[in-house]
Structures are given as C-alpha cells and as structure tokens.
Batch of 2 targets.
Target 1
Amino acid sequence: MVPFKKIVICGVGLIGGSLALALRKNGYKGRIVGLERNREILSRAYALGIVDDAGSPMDETFRGADLLVLSVPVAQTGNVLKMVMPYLSAEMVVTDTGSTKTDVIAVAREVLAEKIDRFVPAHPIAGREMNGPDAAVDDLFTGKKTVITALSENRKDDIEKIAGLWEQCGSIIHYLSPDDHDNVFATVSHMPHLLAYGLVDYVANHAKSDLFFQYAASGFRDFTRIASSSPEMWRDITLANRAHLLTEMDAYLEELKNMRDLVEKADGPELEKIYANARRARMNWLNTIENSESKK
Amino acid sequence: MVPFKKIVICGVGLIGGSLALALRKNGYKGRIVGLERNREILSRAYALGIVDDAGSPMDETFRGADLLVLSVPVAQTGNVLKMVMPYLSAEMVVTDTGSTKTDVIAVAREVLAEKIDRFVPAHPIAGREMNGPDAAVDDLFTGKKTVITALSENRKDDIEKIAGLWEQCGSIIHYLSPDDHDNVFATVSHMPHLLAYGLVDYVANHAKSDLFFQYAASGFRDFTRIASSSPEMWRDITLANRAHLLTEMDAYLEELKNMRDLVEKADGPELEKIYANARRARMNWLNTIENSESKK
C-alpha cells in the first residue's frame, strides 16, 4: 500500500506521468494532483487521465497533500523548491526523480534549510527517448531499479515511505551514496548520451552527410537511440554531473586514443583482445543482470 | 527468378546461411552447396537445412556450379580465392558479402588476375550481433539495401545477375564506388562498433566495474548492442578499412574533445545546440529513411 493520501507531482512528463499511471494501475486510491509551468502540458496530462486535478491555485493544490514529487529537469530543482516552500506542511515528504543527485541535494539543502530532513532523494532507473505526458506508460518502472540516496537527516520512516511508493510501481529499491550514484550514471548513462549526440552531430555536419545517413542501418539506429532524448534535460544532466563526467570522459578518450593508435599500427591481436573482452563482459552482464531483471 | 542453377556458398554463418534460407523461401529451386573450413559449422548448416550438400570433395562441390558467394571474414578472401581458383569454370560468377570493398577488390585482383572480370563485389547491409548458422534467418535482407561496387571489368550481364540474386531475397540494390562505400561504412558502422567495444572494455576494466554494470540499463544496452558482434570479424573489418576509419575517428575525436571542453566550461547553450542538432538530424533520418525502409 502506498503510504500517502494525496500526491502532488510537479512535472507530469514521461517520468512524473508514468509514476501517476503506475500508482493507479497498482491500486493507489488517493488523489494525484499535477503541477506544471506549462499549462498545455498540464491540460494534456489531465485529458490523458494522468492527474485528477490540474491548474488549481497553489494553496488548493497542496491542501492535505502528504507527498511532493519533483519530476522536472534537475536544473529547475531550486526554483521549484523556492516556489513551493510556503506550501510545505509539517507532515509532507518531498522526493525527486532526478538523474543526478549531488547537485540536487546541494540546492535542496540551500532552499529547504532546516526542512532538509523531509527531502528523500530518489532516481528511478527507467526511461524512453520520448518525453511529455503522451510518452507516459503505466509499466515504465516494472522490474526496474529505483536508487534512493538517503540523507543522514532523513527520518527512517520517510525513507521507507518513498521505498514503498516505488515498490508499489513494481520497482526494486537500491541504496547508494549520492557520489557513487553520480559516478555510476556518469559512466553507464550520461557519457553514452554525450557520445551518441556527438556522433549524430558529427555525421549531420559532415560534407557527405546525405550519403552517410542514406546507408546508416540498425547498428547506427541502436547506438544513437539515446540521441533522440530531450536536449534540454540532457544539457542539465551534463552540467549537473560535470565533475564525474569529465573524469570518465578523459579516461574513455584515453582508451579511444589507444585504440586509434592500434588501428594505425594495424595491431590486429590487440584490437581483437579488446573486442573479445568487451563481448565477454557484455554477455556476462546480459546474462547475470540485464536479462534476469527484464524477466521480473 | 534467380539466374543460377547451382550456388556454392563459402561460409555458411549468419550472412551466407541467411542468403541460402532467403533464396529457398523466395522460390529458388537450384542447388545450394556449402563450403567451410570448420566441419562442425558445415554439419550444423546441413542439419538446419541451409545447404543441400556439405563436405563433398572440392571438384564435386564445384561441378556444374555457376555462382560462388564468398561470405567469410574479409581477411580470408585471398586464401579462399587461392583455394578455389582451380575449380572456377569459365561461366562461373563470383561475388562476396564483405563489409569492406577496397581491400577485398585489391586481393581479388591479385589472386584472380585475368579472371577479375567475373568478380562482382557486393555488400548486403544487414546483420545481427549473433553469428554462425544458428543465427541465420530467411528474412534478414528483406527491405534492406545491398550495395554493389561493380568493377570496370565486370560484364553488365554478371552485374545484373548479382543484382537479381539479392532482389530475389527482398533486398534493394544500390551502386557505390568502392571508396565511397568504405568511407560511408567507416562512419556509420565501423566506427560505432569500435566505440561500443571501447566503452564496454572501459567499463569492464574499471575499478568500479561491478558497481557500474549493476546499474547499466536500457540506454547502455542499446548503445553497446554491437559490442556483442564477432571480435574476429570486426578485427578484420577494422584493419581492412583502416584508412577511412582513422580519418573519421580523428575527426570524431576532435568533436568529442570539443564537447569535453564545453562540459568543463559548463557551456550549457553550446552543448544544448549540439544535442538539439543531433536530435533533429536523427529524427529526420528516422522519418525519411530508416522507418520508411523498415516498412517495406
């Protein structure tokens, strides 16, 4: 059972919208109210049945609410928190769905000040390259991990409530420190996004662009799928996770430089060793983690 | 109608095997004989119904054959051609399915010498990350392009026969010069393979490898799908297309270095511009080329 009676979701796009749909599907009986800077998106979410109420004045939106979920681009966290501060009741828990945690926590500490204890940071590891309420689906989190990066100030009770919220959506709860979280996702998510965006931009700006795109096929399609993600959202994530991203990029660029030199030297055995190691590691990952999770 | 009576396929793995299955499915009534250095693979292809005959002596394999298809890793082209040279009858057409063309043509010229006119180089743009006869499927080429990089020595008749072979498998015929072919595929296929192999190898060798793999999700899975491809085959392609690969890698690494510096400078607007340009170009490619082709 979801331990909340009325949930305000700020940002009813892919993640916020999917959370609402998943809660409904899994038996949540309370109210879900949407909050959006963009009225059109809010109306669309209402029309799609994602939220029960949309566009009410702030005091009405927050009346009786016991959970606020921030599901906005991470760079907007501070502004949104400032805006909602006057409406946060003493019982209300606040959480987020941001792809980066250190920066979100820093800004939350600044804005929430002594109320920081009620902010339980979380990150559901799920997504699609589409965005907006029309992209929301009720099984986005099923069998996927949600990482909670709890603060020392958090009450045990509140952490359990947020864990319960995501478990109700079919998600598996993991706990990481904010720094480990940001390092992990810099490597396995943020950097690949940057590489994919970079490759498509490179091809698009090439003198032979039309010829290249003409023959791009399924390998290119899958490699660059994430380059169809929201540029605004990924700009924010890139900047928010700058430190880890730079460390990982510099190390990966070093590896690419080494591979480039192996190509120049026509060093077949060393290249094959790298390819074979990658293939083996990927197969092992698929068998032990990725596929077992997808089956849940 | 396929304009051949007896086809010898040398290499009955994913591509060679799928060609045989596609020909059968689309009404080819002639014989298909397999040729393989590895007896186990040949037996497996025979058991799967991919070839009508397997393991006969060379003179019997080639008796009455009017087409030889080379579907082996590109680096083996020379050795295979030397081995089959004594059995090439005057009427026989030779073609290949290699992912690189300049190097394959160079070695074919050397080995075939005055018989080079009968070698019509081709490259079906289709694949899966699995390999071997068990990965072969009868619709691998349906709606996909096959690029023919014809030689000035080729007879018009022979080029049309090879075009007919692939059209019978549902493929759409394109013509490119060998150099344009190799430049295109260095950029949209070979380099992405190298980047994907490199990323998985990087993660696998990282001190936090276990933690990273634990949280790798669908973005990472799609980005690295091609890193499950055959290391031997991709070693050969990398070496065969070295010149174009180095040119494109150096230019792309330049772009990545620039993006890395934008991250360091926290230049949000410039990063967003690159992301947005990539997203727009990819959407445009999906809408005008990739999706329209998939529907065929």
Note: Chain B has two domains: 6-176, 181-265.
Target 2
Amino acid sequence: QDPEERRTSVPGVATGLAVTGAGGDVLFVEAALSEPGTGAQGVTLTGQLGDVMKESAQIALSYVRGHGKELRISTERLADRGVHLHVPAGAVPKDGPSAGVTMTTALVSLLSGRKVRPEVAMTGEVSLTGRVLPIGGVKQKLLAAKAAGITTVLIPQRNEADLDDVPEGVLDGLTVRPVADVREVLELALTPAAKAPEKVLVA
Amino acid sequence: QDPEERRTSVPGVATGLAVTGAGGDVLFVEAALSEPGTGAQGVTLTGQLGDVMKESAQIALSYVRGHGKELRISTERLADRGVHLHVPAGAVPKDGPSAGVTMTTALVSLLSGRKVRPEVAMTGEVSLTGRVLPIGGVKQKLLAAKAAGITTVLIPQRNEADLDDVPEGVLDGLTVRPVADVREVLELALTPAAKAPEKVLVA
Amino acid sequence: QDPEERRTSVPGVATGLAVTGAGGDVLFVEAALSEPGTGAQGVTLTGQLGDVMKESAQIALSYVRGHGKELRISTERLADRGVHLHVPAGAVPKDGPSAGVTMTTALVSLLSGRKVRPEVAMTGEVSLTGRVLPIGGVKQKLLAAKAAGITTVLIPQRNEADLDDVPEGVLDGLTVRPVADVREVLELALTPAAKAPEKVLVA
Amino acid sequence: QDPEERRTSVPGVATGLAVTGAGGDVLFVEAALSEPGTGAQGVTLTGQLGDVMKESAQIALSYVRGHGKELRISTERLADRGVHLHVPAGAVPKDGPSAGVTMTTALVSLLSGRKVRPEVAMTGEVSLTGRVLPIGGVKQKLLAAKAAGITTVLIPQRNEADLDDVPEGVLDGLTVRPVADVREVLELALTPAAKAPEKVLVA
Amino acid sequence: QDPEERRTSVPGVATGLAVTGAGGDVLFVEAALSEPGTGAQGVTLTGQLGDVMKESAQIALSYVRGHGKELRISTERLADRGVHLHVPAGAVPKDGPSAGVTMTTALVSLLSGRKVRPEVAMTGEVSLTGRVLPIGGVKQKLLAAKAAGITTVLIPQRNEADLDDVPEGVLDGLTVRPVADVREVLELALTPAAKAPEKVLVA
Amino acid sequence: QDPEERRTSVPGVATGLAVTGAGGDVLFVEAALSEPGTGAQGVTLTGQLGDVMKESAQIALSYVRGHGKELRISTERLADRGVHLHVPAGAVPKDGPSAGVTMTTALVSLLSGRKVRPEVAMTGEVSLTGRVLPIGGVKQKLLAAKAAGITTVLIPQRNEADLDDVPEGVLDGLTVRPVADVREVLELALTPAAKAPEKVLVA
Ligand SMILES: [Ca+2]
Ligand SMILES: [Ca+2]
Ligand SMILES: [Ca+2]
Ligand SMILES: [Ca+2]
Ligand SMILES: [Ca+2]
Ligand SMILES: [Ca+2]
Ligand SMILES: [Ca+2]
Ligand SMILES: [Ca+2]
Ligand SMILES: [Ca+2]
Ligand SMILES: [Ca+2]
Ligand SMILES: [Ca+2]
Ligand SMILES: [Ca+2]
C-alpha cells in the first residue's frame, strides 16, 4: 500500500474496530479543525452516529479538554475554531461506546500533529477519567483487523480473558495489547512528536 | 486493590449505588472540568441518563453553585470552563433521583480537590436546599456495596427503618450512616482538604 | 418538630397543596439562586413538571420581574445568576396551575430573604397581573394540610363557596384565608423583613 | 363591579371573545414587561396556546415593533426587557387566530400605559399589515360578551353579514362596531393617553 | 376597489397564487421589518407554513441578502431588525415551493419601498441563484387570478406549454408573462422607485 | 444552449448526479453567500435534504474551512456572512452521501469565484480528509449525465470496476474520470482562477 494512500497518513485519523451484523469491520475516525476566523465553532459530529456514540465523542472531547497540559497538546486551538468528528461511511448508522479510545486518539493526533501508526487498530470504551472499559466482539474485531493488514490491536485490559476464545491462527501475526488507561493507548498508537528537523551541515 | 487502580483515586469521582433488574449495583459518577480557554462551556451530561437523572444533575449543580462560599469551593471555575458529568457504562440507560448525593459529592470533590474515600458508597435524592430524601432498594444496594468491598454506606435518614428488613449478615462489616442533609454526606465521604505540605527541616 | 428541620427554615421554600390520585398532599416549592460569577444563567425547572406547571413557573417569574420595586425585592440579582425552581420528589410527575401562588411566594421569599411562615400552606393559580384564580380539590387539600400540621391555608377567593362542602371537623383548628391577589398571599405567608438588630445598650 | 376588581384595571389587559365546545366565552389577554436589568429578554407565551395562537402573538408583536412611531409607543422598552403574553386560565388549551386584535390591543395598552375600556370586548384575526380578517362564532361571542356585562363589541368588517343571523334581543344594549384595520380597534378600545395632571392653583 | 383598501397599498405585500383542494386561490405574502432598537432580530415565519414553504422563505431571504447591491436595496437594515414573513389566513396550513417568487417580491418591495403593482399576481419556485423553476396548477391559478381582478400573471417560462390547456376565455383580459429569472419578476411586479418629489415653483 | 442560461454560469453552482426511483437524474447544488452586514450567519441547508445529505453538507463545509490556505480560497468570508446550500427542486426530498463532491465543489467555486465547467458532472461521497468514497448507481448516473449533454463525469476511483457493467454505447462520447481525492475533483471541475485582464497596449 502506498503510504500516501493510507487513511492515517494525516494527523487526526485513527483506526477503530466495529462489530456489524456481518462480523467485524475496520472503521476510521476522522477529526478535523477549521482554520481560525472562518466563523466555525463548537463540535460537529457526523456519520449517522447514534446517541451512545455521540456521547462517546463528547467524553473524548472533554477528556482532551481537561488534560491538555498533561498530554502536551494545544487545547486552546479548540476555542476559536470548530472541531468536527466524522466516521465514514456517511450513510451507515453506527452506535455503541467502543469507539471511545479511537475518538480520543484521533483528537489527540489532530491537536498534537502526531500521526497514528498505520499498523495499529484499537477498540474500547473510555470513561471521563480515561479508564478503558470493556467492550464486546473481541474475536470478530481481531479477525477484521487481521484481514485489513493491521498487526497491533489495542483492547481493554478487562477483555483480556476473551482472548481465550480466539482461535490460535487468528492471533498469529497479531500483537494484542491490553490497556487500562487511555494514556497507554496514546503512547502505543501515536507516532512520536515531530522534532525540529536535523540540520545538514555541509562543510 | 492497587490504590492507583481505584476509581476514586482522582478528585471528581464518587461511588453510588443503583438498583437494576438484576439486583443492586455499584456505579461511579465522574465529574470533570475542561481547562480554561478551550471553548468549552455549560454542562454536559452523558451515560444515557433519563429525564429524572438529568434533573438530579441539574439540582446537584445548582446546589453547588449556590453554596460555594459555605462549602469553600471555587465555583467561579465553573464560569469559564465546561463541566461534564458522566456515569459509566456508556451504553447502559440509567434513571431515577437516587444518585443525587453521589453527583453532588462528585462535583464538590472535583471543585475542592478533595478525593472521595474509596471505602464509602452512598445513595439518596437531594433537594435544592440540600435535604436528603428517601430512595428505594436499600437492601439490594447494601448487598452490592458489600460485594464491591465498600465498608461505609450513606443512606437517607428517612430510609433508616428499611434496615430492619436487611438480614443481619449483610450488615456485618458494614457501617451504615443515615444522613438528612447533603452537608453530612460531604463530611463523611470526602477526604480532608489538602494542607500545605509539611516542610522537612534538615538542620 | 425541630425548627431547623422544617422545610421552610431557609428563605426560598414555600408550602403548597396538591391533589393526587390518592387524595391531597403537601408539596414544597424550592427556589434557589446561584452565586454570581459561576456561569449559571436563565431559569432551570426540575421536578418532572408538566407543561402547565412549567408555564406557572414562567408566570411567577415574570410577575416577580415586573413588580420588583413594588415588592421591594432585588430583581436585578436575577440578571447575573441562574435561578432554579424545584419541586420534590424528583421522580414524581406533577402538573397543573394551582402551585402558582406557591411558586410566586417561594421566589419572593428567596429574593427578599424573608422566610415563609411554617404554619402556612397555600393553593391557587396566579395570572400575570397577580390575580388569584380558582383551583380544584379544596377539600382534599385542606385535609392534607391539617394532617401535615398546617394551621393556616390560603385559598382563592373564588373557591370560598367550596368551603360549604368541607366537613366541620376538618375546618376546626384551620384558619382558611380566601385571597384574590397574590399580594395578599405574600403578606400572609412571609415573615416580616428583617430589621437591623436592636442594639443593647449597657450603660 | 368594583373598578379595582376589573381585569382591565391595569394597562396591558384586553378583553377577547372565544368559542368553546360549550358556546362563547370571554377571555383576557394579559401582557407584562419585566423591569429592566432582571436578565429577562425575548418573548414568553403562556396559557397552553396552540400553534396558530402562538403565531397570532408573534404577528401582534411584530406589528407593534414595526409601528411604534405611528402608535406613539415606546417600543424600545422591548429591547432590554422580557415581554410576556398570558391568556388565563392556565390549564385550558386555546388555539385559533381570532385573538389577534386582543393581543395587539393588550400590547399597545401595556406600552402606552393607556388602559383598555372595561366595557369593550373584541374578536378578529390581524394580518402583519394590521388588516382585521374575518373569524367564526360571531353569534356565540356576542352572547358571551353580553352575559359578561360588555356593552361594545368590535368585530371584523368582513363579519358584518353575520349579524343578520343574530337574534334582535341579543343586539339590544350591545354596540357592535365592525372594523377593518387594527388602528380602529386601538382607537375604540383604549382610553385616551394620560395627560399631565392639572395643577390646582391656590391663590 | 378603493386603492387604500388594496392589500398591496403598502410596500412589503405581494400577490401570489395557490392551488387548494377547492381550485385556485389568491394569497398575499406580507413582509415586515421591526423598527431598530426593539430587541427583535432574525426571521419569523407565520401562517402555518409547511417545511417546503419555510425553505422557500429562507431561499428568498438568502437571495435578497446576496444581491442587495445589484437590487439597490438596503439589506443592512436586516442586520439590526427582525424581519417577519406572514401569509394569511393564519389558521390555514400552506405548503409547497411555488410562493418563492412572491416571497422574494414581498421582501424586495419592503426593503426598496417600492409597492407591488395591484394588478399583478405571480407564481413560481425560485432557486438560490434566482432561477424561476416550474410549478403546478397553472390553469387553476389563472382562473383564481382572473376572479380576483388581476390582469397580469407572471408564470415560470418552463410552464409556458401549460397555457395550451387553458381555455381561450380564461386568457381573455389576462396578460400572462413567462419569466425565467426572478429579476424579471421584480421588474414587472414592482412600481418604480420613488423619486424626490417635484418642487412646485411659484413665481 | 445559451451560455447565460446554463445553471453553472455563475460561481457557486455544481452539477451532480442522483439516482431516483425512475433512474438517474442530474441535480444542481447551489451555494450562496450573503453580503456582509445583513445579519445573516451560520449555515442554511434547503431542498428537503435528509439526515445523511445534511451531514454531507457539514462535511463539505468543514473540509473547506480546514483547507482554505491550501485551496487558496478566502474562508474568512464565511465568518461574517451566512452561507446557504440549496438543492432544487425545493419540494423533492433528497438523501444520501453521494453529493459530497458536488457540495464541496459548489462551495469552493463560490469562495474562489471560479465557475464550474458546464460539461462536467460528478458523484462521490467525501470524507472529512477529502477522500472520495464509493457510491451506487454509476450506470444510471452516466445515462442521466449523457442525456443532459454532459461530456465529462467524475466518479470515485473505487467505483471504477462498475464501468464494466455499463454498455459500450453509453460510454461513447463520455469521458469518465475516476478520482480518489476531492482535490482532483476541484482541479478537473473548476475553471482556472481569473487572472488580471491583459492590458491592450496601443502604441
Ligand atoms: Ca438511543
Ligand atoms: Ca470500535
Ligand atoms: Ca421521562
Ligand atoms: Ca444511586
Ligand atoms: Ca401538556
Ligand atoms: Ca398546589
Ligand atoms: Ca398545530
Ligand atoms: Ca377571540
Ligand atoms: Ca415535510
Ligand atoms: Ca403560489
Ligand atoms: Ca435519517
Ligand atoms: Ca449525486
């Protein structure tokens, strides 16, 4: 796959995992900021999100707004711009709390400028204090991740026991990382913060 | 349990008690403030709260906003920040007035920086003047508290008679404190205000 | 009853009378103001109030906002604070216009600092000009007031004829005061404005 | 009737006529302004008004806001205060456009300080340009007006033919004035503007 | 008809044509501005308008707001005043896009002070760029216009073929003008801009 | 066709393709800005758009607000004016995500002043990062485009395989351009930016 073609090739996009009637699926959470001075403000949520998933987005946003210093991100950029969270495909209704970690990761990626690692997918509810709470469909989600070429999957620590029900073959080539706090998710999923470019000295 | 793993290990989280179709349960009310200057404002309520429970949150917030001086908390922090109350799990609908004391305690904990004692759980409706009004399901709630390792449970004074119906064994090892005013709840549930750290003099 | 335990022991609480499926009942209307500078504004109504009862609250508030000078209350405190009207119990749906006098009294009590007399209960619709309009359930309301230890009940003048249907025994020990204007209600229900404390001269 | 007891004894109250399932009825439209600086703003409509009647109130208000100079009323008082229109009784649902003239009259009475003549009742839809449009139930409304002691009734000019169906006896003692423009309504229904009180010279 | 009695005798009123269950009908669109400083702002739509017709009003308003210079109208008057569009009769539900030209004409008449010619009626949907799009019921609308004494009817150019189905007799005495752009509508329907009154010189 | 008659003869109009119960159809997305200082603000969406299509409009707008610099358009014009997106015909309900590219193109055309090429139509969902996602009804849309005189159709790259099902004859005379990013759409659909007019030197 051409790196430029990857969905996560720009900051603000994180790879999640969902369960549909037809098994597991990969989904992308896209976060975007308007430029300042365009009249945009507040939060826009699109992608035919249900009530629970909209609340997940509010929780992700409040988490970020309350932990800017700790996360070293510029939350003040949220004050004079509009922030938009979208989950394609646009016509497919989606619901549930399990995209919480993905939404938080997309927002922190956007505000920090750190891209999300393309080989990492994740699933987990997030509480307002950053706890990662258990979700359903671990097996289907792992299958979907593997089919999509993902090599690392972050799951809630409290779902670790579900791995016993996953056939050996599925886990081959997959690194599954149980996480208890969204800070661990961010550490594992985001590329390092950009450094100042090295100067090439030509003597 | 590792103290760091406790839900109440940060200010803003209080332990409540609920009755579900399947008996009693422990629930956590999480309160969070955004940092100033992030564009957040007003109140966000999540956790699939029903009408009555949303009103409980409004009552808790008004109580706090009207008693800041008396409670020695900085309610002016509510003016330029968003406040968010969340009750996990995100996908489980919840309703009823009995989390009023828990919501009030979570808010006062958040604004005072005083953590909630991890061994204390509570249940009770709160009126706008701080009265603790009676609730249902005392027996199931005590059972759930005990199962969760709670040792002190605050119940409304007007529910004291309900203790007669609770088997002796349940009350063993549980301290049940009837309360009539939310000020008593705060006194019993919150850890003392932090003092300036003692200086260690090395002579 | 310990005076401190009385619901009306703080300004902002007035005793009303309601009719339920099971007869009459006493209800309390609680009014509260946030402290200035907490970001609260506007009006919050809680207690599972129906459409008609919410309109009663709006009428009570407009009445107060239009008659501040005459009532000698500081309505400008409503400008930079939130005002909240609550009617416990939080989970019980309530409706109807007959709490209009009680809501008006609670608001004037709050803004004037004058407590409501604990022995007085009241019922009556209020129009925007302060007229007290007739209500239903006079007999049941008087019974409920008496059972609650109330000794003075204010009813609309246009309900005076309903007293003929009330058994003699019920009226024994009850002072029923028919009123035509909410100003009469306020005069009868509120304690006098606090005066500067008398100085004790020791010569 | 004691003049002080009349509903129209204060500016802002006008007498309308309605048709109910049980015949005609007199209704009062009450308009009130908050004092400046109480935080009130915008328009509040109460009295369980239906969609059409709420639109009548908006039309009345827009008419007044667009014709302040011509009507010599201080519409700028509407800018920093809340205006409230209420139609008792609070629990009775009401709908229809025929209170348009009554609402306009109540508003102009309020803003001009000119009381509405107690012997005048009125019915008619108002268009945004002040046209008085025809309504239904002329006969029942006249009967209700007469029963209430009204002596002058204003009806839409386009309803004049309906008078043929009204029994002679009903019209005895009633002055019916057909009107085509709401300016005529105001001229007939409002008392003259107050003049400066005459000085009594004592020489 | 007395010119003063005409609905279009003031700027802001335009004559439209509708189809009802009972054939065609003439309708009037009334536009009004509040005086500055009355606290009114935004747009008010009344007349029991359905979703599609409310969108027509928004399109008409956006068209006017985007073409003020070209139309030589003072759109800045919309900034500090409320604008209100009403379509009598108030209790009759109305819907559909065909009043678009009429709403645009009423707004331009209001803002330019140019009255609408009383002998002109119109029908046509308007797009956001001012295109006049086809509508239904041409025959019934022409019949209604003729019955109301209208002599010029503006119809969408794309409805020109519908005139073949209209009996000869109906078109006698009617000038039907097909139009493709709302600018043509305005040119045909509005009276010329007022000039400075001629001075009468008396030598 | 007279160039002046073309729907795309002004900036802000783009040609889309839809599928209806009766086959494919051409639709036009119209974007308009109010002049500054008319009191308009925010976004207005009309054309009886369904939930998914309204979200498409929000995505298009956020994309534009986040990429103004890159697209060399003056997004700050969105701050003090209202923006309106309309899709005629006004009474026809529309839904689905496939007008995303068309809405984005109409907005960029409006803000850049670059007209949309009249011979180009387009279809495709857009994600918040500008990805063009696949849609349905390629065959019907191409038929509709051809019938409308369109010679170039832009489709999502991920729909390229659908071209195999399109009869040869349909593709004759049609240039079909698969696109993966909305930037390609803009490059292919918009006319070049206007340059300063060449000066004609007469020596
Ligand atoms: Ca739901
Ligand atoms: Ca997920
Ligand atoms: Ca409910
Ligand atoms: Ca509880
Ligand atoms: Ca109701
Ligand atoms: Ca009552
Ligand atoms: Ca209705
Ligand atoms: Ca009436
Ligand atoms: Ca509709
Ligand atoms: Ca029409
Ligand atoms: Ca939908
Ligand atoms: Ca399309």
Note: The radius of gyration of chain F is 17 Å.
